[in-house]
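Anyone? Bumping this.
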Amino acid sequence: MLSVDLKKKLKNFSLEATFDVSNEIIVLFGPSGAGKTTILNSIAGLTHPDNGYIKLNNHSLFQINEKPLPIQKRNIGYLFQDYALFPHMTVKKNINYGMKDESLVNELVSVVGIGHILDSYPHQISGGEKQRVALVRALATRPGALLLDEPFSALDEETRKECQNELLRLHKLWKIPVIMVTHDYKEAEKVGDRIIRIEKGKLLEN
Amino acid sequence: MNYTPLFLSLKIAGIATCIVFVLGVIFARLIARNNFPGKRILEAILLLPLVLPPTVVGFGLLYLFGKNGPIGSLLLNWFDYQVIFTWVGAVIAAIVVSFPLMYQSAQASFQNYDRNIENAAFTMGASKFKVFWTISFPLAWPGLLAGLVLTFARALGEFGATLMIAGYIPNQTETIPLAIYFAVESGNTDAAVFWVVSIIAIGFSAILWLNWWSGKNILKFTSDK
């Protein structure tokens, strides 16, 4: 269970977000600049809220007036919009970078079907493949929760559908709290167990 | 023909380059990534030798490292050591004039890639140390190497500040640029031409190699299948 209750002043408005995520997929849906990525960054530890708390399985990640838990110790998987694959490492080295155990990686690689590109570099593979590699790389660390920042926005329609199905399939196998950010409502409806709308920093649950 | 100026120049520029490389990388990381009061002023001071005449740098170094200067008097009292009119003085002059080149290259190369690549590594549990050596440094390396070559070339060609702090002492502080100047002064054109040609050859090959190498490396991560 991931519990979030945070306040943070942004440029033009203040972000207020309170929600819990059990082992489900929550979609944060809203226009650009509404504060979606800030919520993900706060959970991952890349930025810190001004007030509130963030907890993962009753473990405090952030609590006002306490020293925030460093990014490295949060055990949160984060899939960035542009994947942020390490360009100078092969797919295999990318995946093994934070790997917890090898059998999990082997299983993930075969489930997602990227066994044939393990020795390729990121610039040699397609967008859909990059997306899968980034997903496997994030899951290889056995994260306690997974954050996805517009993970399919750079893909064509068909690949996007495939990757959405992939995510749903993986989530059935590894039940962890997942938060996905998107501004595509069809995608939100398809992937999300729950959809939270966000506008100018305020949450409106559907 | 006395080849001492060549070896002296390579020794001085080599040592200066190693020190400048480490300092440049550390400063670029610390200053570029953190915001603190006075940051712009500190950066301006670090880059100042780039726009100052070398004689001004030399004058400043003479003041700092002179017998009565703030650093010079400490060295003299504590270690009974003087850098003025020694090859170490030439190393210091080379460090100061070439540092801005390394600093600028390092700063640019650490901003040249997506910050999220480092962030991704952090979320996977990697320590700051691991991220630096496995992600930041390799990704910045092409730019750092360019800075390294420029630093070496600048250190090799340093004249004004070197002359002021290290003076012209044959076989001790006589680097190639000084050898050229004093060869011309004394009418020894043959020696001057020899050193002019050698320093052009060194500089030309350094830049040629750098262009070739960076072209090859840029291709490595961007070319398609």
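Late reply, but here is one note on the structure posted above: Chain A has a mean pLDDT of 91.
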